[in-house]
Amino acid sequence: MAPPEAAAAQSAPPGPDGPRDPAAPPTPVLEAVGVSKRFPGVVALDDVSFTLRAGEIHALVGENGAGKSTLIKILTGVHRPDEGELRLGGEAVAFHRPHEAQQAGISTIYQEVNLVPLMSVARNIFLGREPRTRLGLVDFRRMHRETAELLGGFGITTDPRRPLHTLGIGTQQMVALARAVSVRARVVVMDEPTSSLEPREVETLFRVIGDLHARGISLVYVSHRMDELYRICDRVTVLRDGRLVHTGDLKDTGRVRLVSMMLGRELARVRKEAAAGSPGSAAATAEPVLTATGLSRRHLLDGVALDLRPGEVLGLGGLLGSGRTETAKALAGALPLDGGEITVGGRRLRRISSAAAIRAGISLLPEDRKAEGIVPGLSVRENIVLAALPRLSRFGFVSRRRQDRVVDVFMKRLRIKAASPEQKVGELSGGNQQKVLLARWLCLEPRVLLLDEPTRGIDVGAKAEVQTLIDELAAEGLAVLLISSELEELVEGAHRIVVLRAGAVAGELTGDDVTEGALLTVLAETAPQAPAQAGAETAAADARRAAPDPAPKAAPAAGGGPADVPDQAPAAGPREEDPR
Amino acid sequence: MKSLVNPALSAPTGAPPATTAEPRPGGRQRAAELLQRQGVLAVLVLLCVVSSFLFESFATLDNTRGIAIQAAFPAIVALGMTLVIVTGGIDLSVGSVFALGGVVAAWASQYGFLPALLLPLVVCGAIGTLNGLLVAKAGMAPFIVTLASLLGARGLLLALTHEGAKTYLVPRGSAFQKLGGGAVWGFGYPVLIALALFALGGLVLQRTSFGQALFAVGGSGDAALLMGLPVARTKVLVYTLSGLLAGFAGALNAARLSSGVTIIGVGMELDAISAVVIGGTLLVGGAGSVSGTLWGVLLLGVIQNLINQIGSLNSSYQSVVSGGFLIVVVVAQRYLSAARRGT
Lengths: 580, 343
Fold this sequence. Notes:
B: ABC transporter involved in vitamin B12 uptake, BtuC; two-stranded antiparallel ribbon; 3 strands; AAA+_ATPase (chain A)
């Protein structure tokens, strides 16, 4: 949807450095050529090339671990590439520190506002390059005046003397942006700038981006929000697992294709039938064991509702940042909520806390098992019985015999491969560690099992085994919620899939609709909000209160549902202010 | 002078953008902020007023001069400590460095005024630089690094004085001795020097780029690095300054006492830290003021003086009172910080 002016702007010289010949291809402002970066144990970037043309807004997308952050940090001098080189305006450069990249005109706005909270707005903007008086002292009067002018240009009035932390997060973001551009930046890199903004703030940001664009400043824009990308970006680069997947004009790249490239699933393969089998259909009629309604948390969740039946595996799909993990945490009482109700077995949880959830029979296997679950220095036995200790002990004494019995049962049942129950868990493979964690929760005899990326980081064989285990547990009557970034795993493992988007339920796939194609379509196409708030996760709040049925069960086949009509009305379309 | 702001950016473009105004902080927040910043001064003034009614010898010129000269040396040490703590660090070595500076100055005073002044600065500045390099470049914890140099400096001092058996004397009537012993209107030179240093320190902290960098490093080291500030250089410099100031204070003290006393300065770093924290500087860094430290030092000095006035009270109780006061201040700061955030 890039208007023709955009193309014109691209070939027009943005400044004295720009190309003189209008027929010549746009000069790259900033290039990364064949860049690789390795960290201990990980190849973060593998021979990636990236070209930022003069005056364009370039989207950089990819799922977790795709290498976006690493690429950005290389472009901005935080990391140095192991191989390959950077070129600025055609000439090879090497940045040793962020400062050098900034000197060269590359400014960055990080996802978390990277300013000093206790210092004033003006001090933050001018930190490191304060204007001086004739005596060599910092000229606060001028600093405050210029800060007010600068922010005024962005439509923000605030006292430059106020400490930064007293401002709203959106305004803080604007201050970061003001700092970034006031250093005469030629390139501005934005890493998910809208992730914590209110809809109104997103509009302000887009207006400022439009302003920058009109001045010929090139932007790298990282976001997961399709609507935002298609609204403001010219070109797109897709990374996956540290490799370059695609670079091209965004308008030539359909949403479904973009999402499938991000996730690494080709459309040709998506006609796969759900492997779910009979248990699902049997479960479809059962009373739900868990019902959640209106789970809300500012910026994260907006009225998520779902139910789980015994014997069923419910898949929870969605792109990064859509609120999958947050939903699981909310159900397990591990995320403080602004609102919402959880009912387990017909009884509503009065206080939603981890303890209450565990008592009610909800167990969560967290995404990051190293940080949130496994105690590597303890033995398999100790790890398994950790959560069940209160049940296995009497008067504070733990019965070793009962422990051994329980551990023996689970090691056999889950086929945990360890030399003995006394082996340290840290010495086991990832898949077996995951099974130990699973055993720990199964000890508590839960009714609901929440699995957040249960197969991440474990090898293929163990993966299949864990997946089989999940099926078996469901067949035994457990209600399972399965979160996975892998479409295949989700489609094959789940009987039903609820798709989240921007912290709300965007659609549900049941029965024969549980296919990768349908899932991909929902992931890419659902755009239920009014366009003014398009893409803003936070938008959700207002938009949904206004609209009675804001999250229609997206019919997977209907590519152009009513939700998909982008409204062009807001004048904030960045390029409309192009002075040329 | 050309504007730092890209002129094109401040010019309005297209339709005037809708203005976003941030709500101003409430009165309660501002009161909390004021109290956090000037609370010590208020307590100090109150204590002085009350004391001058209770003890007739308190509000005399002589007593004031006494308090001032007593406070001058710890004040100079605390000034350096303030700068270090603003960066989120700590310097435990200042007490030892203070004593070492005195001994080195007393030894060097036999060669004249300049050696007596400069040699302790060189030695103590070098110790500070070493601290800074270990903290900034080697990434070691300031607590450990300066604890090591606390021990090291004290050991060096003992080696120089043959286990403390030899005391170097400042030649009578020398210019260096006058630096410590001289006075204007009864206020010793060290008092005036300390005041001048505080004025300079305030200017550096509040009105120079270096001062801004100190706040930034202490407020958010990562952000400072990403903003391209010379974080490592700033840290090295601030520990060097702390060493220089401690050594200088030690030299001044030796001049005043006419000898390099080896047993002083033990625990001085803790008094300095107390004064800095009482003065409203956050121990975690990122916020603080030089003036607050001055009030903090004076407050501790006045408390000591009062306990001496009472006479019947063992002077060791001074530490008990200061300690209690420190706790009150830290608790009050927690509440005030919460109030400022409006929670």
